[in-house]
Write a structure and sequence with these properties.
Layout: H1 2-14, E1 19-28, E2 34-43, E3 46-52, E4 58-61, E5 72-76, H2 81-84, E6 91-98, E7 104-111, E8 116-122, E9 125-131
Antiparallel strand pairs: 1-2, 1-5, 2-3, 3-4, 6-7, 7-8, 8-9
């Protein structure tokens, strides 16, 4: 799975293409409970989809995995203020993350002139974190 991720990312970075859309996929269990199970980043005509698996690992896809599944709905994130900061920007760097049991359970993405984003599988859903530099000197030098 890591090699597939690297291949998709190399294609996106080498072509210097910008992020054009972001979609979230939620699994709805009832009125109160839903989980973010995948997120898709569209770079012009290339898709990078990160999906949480039942074993708390992530899988990477270059095609949408959720055409007409029951209890799964898609939400366009592009109009949310948070994601607007990333639209129109190319991907600069990416990292793969593994937990202490060896599961491929996260990635980190850095877009040009923006905050790094971490996507982690936890409890069979995707958690999104921002990685920012500390505002104080953490090394004491």
């Amino acid at each position: 799975m890591v090699k597939k991720f690297q291949s998709i990312i190399e294609n996106i970075v080498d072509r210097d293409i910008s992020l054009t859309d972001v979609f979230a996929y939620f699994e709805k269990f009832d009125k109160e409970r839903q989980m973010l199970i995948a997120i898709s980043f569209k770079f012009e005509n290339t898709l990078l989809q990160i999906k949480a698996e039942d074993d708390d690992s992530i899988s990477i896809h270059s095609e949408n995995q959720f055409d007409c599944e029951k209890n799964i709905y898609q939400f366009d994130l592009a109009n949310l203020e948070f994601w607007k900061a990333y639209l129109g920007k190319p991907l600069l760097w990416s990292w793969t993350m593994f937990n202490n049991f060896g599961y491929f359970d996260g990635i980190q993405l850095e877009f040009v002139e923006s905050t790094k984003i971490q996507l982690l599988a936890c409890g069979s859903e995707i958690k999104i974190n921002c990685v920012i530099a500390p505002s104080t000197n953490v090394l004491g030098v």
